[in-house]
Amino acid sequence: MSEAMQAFQLVEARRIKAQRTARPVAGRDEVLIAVKRVGICGSDIEYYRHFKCGAFVARRPFVLGHEVCGTVAACGADVIGLSVGDRVTVDPSMPCRQCDYCSSGRYNLCRNMRFLGSASVDPHIDGGMREYLTVPARNCHRLPDSLEWSEAAALEPLSIALHACSRAGAVCGKRALISGGGTIGLLVLLTLRSLGAAEVVVSDPVAGRREMAVKLGASAALDPAGGGAAQQGEFQLFFEASGAAQAVETAVYATARGGTVVYIGTVLQDVPLPVNLIMVKELSVLGSFRTVHQFGPGLQLLADRRIDVRPLITHTFPITAVNEAFAATESPQAVKVQLDFV
Amino acid sequence: MSEAMQAFQLVEARRIKAQRTARPVAGRDEVLIAVKRVGICGSDIEYYRHFKCGAFVARRPFVLGHEVCGTVAACGADVIGLSVGDRVTVDPSMPCRQCDYCSSGRYNLCRNMRFLGSASVDPHIDGGMREYLTVPARNCHRLPDSLEWSEAAALEPLSIALHACSRAGAVCGKRALISGGGTIGLLVLLTLRSLGAAEVVVSDPVAGRREMAVKLGASAALDPAGGGAAQQGEFQLFFEASGAAQAVETAVYATARGGTVVYIGTVLQDVPLPVNLIMVKELSVLGSFRTVHQFGPGLQLLADRRIDVRPLITHTFPITAVNEAFAATESPQAVKVQLDFV
Amino acid sequence: MSEAMQAFQLVEARRIKAQRTARPVAGRDEVLIAVKRVGICGSDIEYYRHFKCGAFVARRPFVLGHEVCGTVAACGADVIGLSVGDRVTVDPSMPCRQCDYCSSGRYNLCRNMRFLGSASVDPHIDGGMREYLTVPARNCHRLPDSLEWSEAAALEPLSIALHACSRAGAVCGKRALISGGGTIGLLVLLTLRSLGAAEVVVSDPVAGRREMAVKLGASAALDPAGGGAAQQGEFQLFFEASGAAQAVETAVYATARGGTVVYIGTVLQDVPLPVNLIMVKELSVLGSFRTVHQFGPGLQLLADRRIDVRPLITHTFPITAVNEAFAATESPQAVKVQLDFV
Amino acid sequence: MSEAMQAFQLVEARRIKAQRTARPVAGRDEVLIAVKRVGICGSDIEYYRHFKCGAFVARRPFVLGHEVCGTVAACGADVIGLSVGDRVTVDPSMPCRQCDYCSSGRYNLCRNMRFLGSASVDPHIDGGMREYLTVPARNCHRLPDSLEWSEAAALEPLSIALHACSRAGAVCGKRALISGGGTIGLLVLLTLRSLGAAEVVVSDPVAGRREMAVKLGASAALDPAGGGAAQQGEFQLFFEASGAAQAVETAVYATARGGTVVYIGTVLQDVPLPVNLIMVKELSVLGSFRTVHQFGPGLQLLADRRIDVRPLITHTFPITAVNEAFAATESPQAVKVQLDFV
Questions:
Q1: Cα atoms in the 13 Å half-sphere on the side-chain side of B41
Q2: ipTM value for the complex
Q3: Is A335 left (phi over 0), alpha (psi -120 to 50) or beta?
Q4: Pick from A42, A324, D70, D105: most CB atoms within 10 A?
Q5: Do A173 and D306 touch (CB under 8 A)?
Q6: Chain A contacts of D172, Cβ < 8 Å?
Q7: Whose CA is closest to D74, among D63, D88, D66, D84?
Q8: pLDDT digit string (tens) for A29-79?
Q9: Which domains does chain C have, with CATH numbers?
Q10: Do D281 and C268 touch (CB under 8 A)?
């Protein structure tokens, strides 16, 4: 008979409830993971606050969390290369591998994506805010001993930053402006530096985030209210990671002729844009959605500490205080909030 | 003493006046061209109607026309490879060759561009609506005998279409939607077909242009009022060549996940855009400005008649009827209007 | 009880034998195809002559043929989008869709590729030289009525030419030299022309092939013995489709600084190369292996007759004369030899 | 009357002689530089040993040295942005800015390149092994105070490494093998690490260089005699920086399917290559010649000490001991040898 475990289920807006439920059993190609650490992402916060995230409306309770790491507790019969006790981090994407996007290598755009901790399909797919979860073995990346759980749980957002930078093409020697000094904006900063970008400026209205940006290697940090982007010279690259309509528009003005704007942030309204400038300056305005092929590279950068994400983890709560953890994300001091399974 | 000639000068909005003026003399690296044919471009029409074009305000009378071809009438002392009597078409771009954009191969974005028939610098640079003009020899492309003057004068807009398609990357096998069935839209259609694009659909409110699009190889032509783009399946490519705000917005909706939107049209107002869709669909929204490196390829396609631009030339006027020619551009039947020097 | 059919099995070098065998049954995701036309590829000829092809040594009799088209004779239970009677052409690649190459969009390099009519895995995979074969439904491309069987069976080699051209990047306006006027070389010629390449020169020792090249749009055709490549000006692109060691070396000499060489031909020995020239001229020497993502684009080009492959099909034999067909491939006049199922 | 200075002229193979000569005068767009440090490059060594370098045969005595930095001693009338006393490093490339390669952004392939300290044109162009030289102001890059002269003189070879890595495209997360642990090989190592490459292995027959490679961040270092590359797993990238024929061949074997080989080393003989493997593995074999657009990015990486080249500078000699300096380059312990002007 299968054993029981605790799952922390989002049952309605602003309420996660601990439930006693059956521990899942790994299929032939799957592993069972005893969860150690889960990060809270912006989309988790959206679901938490509104019981929906953009177009994805939750129809029934489910478990959030797609920034997950833990220890392998059991392996399915066909699993090779992983053993019980291995420390792993989990790629939350389960693309179909059959559609045209998958076969062309852009599985982040998969027509039939299944994604941990998401209401994008129904039944919804439970995420990592529970004691155990099963995932395909291929979604697990084994961790070097030196890597802390907090870092391992940050690989997923780091891989998003890597993808955004990859969308921008060669960054070496280029000047970049990042709007938004939250988790993704700061990870883009760290990534750009580790890929050879020249100067990187971060824009954020919160003073504490600007300070952190400078500590992490930004050549300057701006308050967008000051309108200072224009005084900072030309930027070949602009990463919009704030979701603020004003920043989306500023991107078109502040990016140099021939430059590249990458949209990573979630923008909830239509934004009036000077599209003629996009043409006259021959800008490339590129969406960047989730991540693709970046778990391996990101893990390597973390393992070598060429990127150190630990300063970004401002809050850690025990999983039993999950509602308090979500409340903490509202603090302007919060960058990444994680949940610990002890 | 230098000889006289007629120049057709834009003296104020909606008035071009024939002036008797000195024939220019070719510098050492220049050739003197006896003009045979000049096409009227959308930017010429803007200058004609408003004495300005976007940010470029005319401060004094000048000569329009940058779609120019003619016969070499004299060669400067250092010119090699061209002789008197050669039929040539003229590249109107005179980049500085020194700035960072020039040295990186994107001379269309040159910081110090001089452009024929434009008020972008002061003194303004006279264009081709005159009996003779001088241009650097390197801006001349010799024409094969088989090419008609009308085709030669259409190489400049064709090169703009080629650049726009080049911005989109590999087009072979892709489905494309073009909004706008004017000169540029139809040239994009011809270009896409000659670069291997699969089906190309053209959207234009004018029935005559839709008919021409189908004759030229479009798989379908839509009236944008009908909102039919959505019924046409997925488009990997969208070329916005109409300048209409509605089309700019439609581009974001009608382009498939992972697809590419190219803005070529001049859009006079800010347009509210669903920027979140750009992110979620991971679109690439690319400005395309003028042209770069495309005169040679375009001339080859014309010379082989792999692209035949002649059906697009709906009106030809003698240069002495230049004001009538500009009036004709207002007809919905007009695609390309050209001026003949007899 | 399953019905019988004829299969034309390669039983040893230079001997194909008709065998009575059970007609295969389509699996849930498969279709049964009544074969109409099969082309003979260079690798088929290798297997036929030597009972091996490069590193792939046949261990037991098997059925050749991967340029296959026919009519759907039965559909598995889960097949959607295809019906009995549909005319289809078959993509012979069955990649695993799981390995790193598949997930990055380069499934032609799949670590676990299964390929029709090949001894690359054991048991070998029977190809199309039989009355019926089963293939995954997703490997079938439905044909427009206007397309002849002979053209449909040529889509596979055309897709190889398309891939080779795709490896070379943008070809529009570039001058190309193709060494080898066999099927692949001539298909590269047709493809380059339909993708906007400027002049294309073909080099082949056989006069008849040079004549065909010029008829198909080559601007010139050379006898490599004459060493004339150097007199033809600069080539930005060089496609090596002959497999001749001399041509492999010539490619490095004849390609312009900054140019691209694509190796498509099978070269059986090591070739001494002036590698310093590759460095000093900054060449890009690119292998091109089979094809990836090109069946759709190729079919569109065939359907529109923007590429007409019919002149290349120099010989057609009934399947019962399959040994004679292989003998015919040795004629210098032969380009593509096909087998007909009546 | 112009002042005198010392120039250290290569007068024949293996003999550099101090000459008293007139100090040059800066033209309108030029600056006069008081040289502080010059590095000795492999091509300098070739000229020194043989009075020629590959195809470039010296016809008369000239001054070597293109890895040059110093202090601005005078500015021409039109120079802006530089002042007397500025510390600068010099880009030795003087492309024509007019030819097709220049206008397409690949000025390293310029048809009319003038290069400091080279016999590639006649009269030869004197390099930096003299007290003063004049160069176009645009070839100067101003140094931050923190940068040492030794580092500034190493920017030129670093920019070559950056270009080689740029040829390889995105390197983040990839495994690389570098053959050759000399200056360029080790700079490629440092560059790959600073651009996010995963593991980098260096192969060199000299134990001291292997030790230095590991100190500089290589995950392993191999003796090529041991044939160990095959035991190191798959390499997506292979940089050939040794010039050894064996390494050129190994590259084709050791690089993974779909991988990229970059040739940077000078290889003096033809090398028999398994070209069929290039095709079957679909390799990209890319020449990399000198450098283009990489002085700015390289200077930024040096200025931030994200790349520290100082450990590579194994020997420094006063300019008066220039012949001893060249002798020192023959020691297996030597990596970069520089000349000091005191």
A1: 28
A2: 0.96
A3: alpha
A4: D70
A5: no
A6: 162, 166, 195, 297, 301
A7: D84
A8: 999 999 999 999 999 999 999 999 988 999 999 999 999 999 999 999 999
A9: 4-154+309-340 (3.90.180.10), 162-287 (3.40.50.720)
A10: no
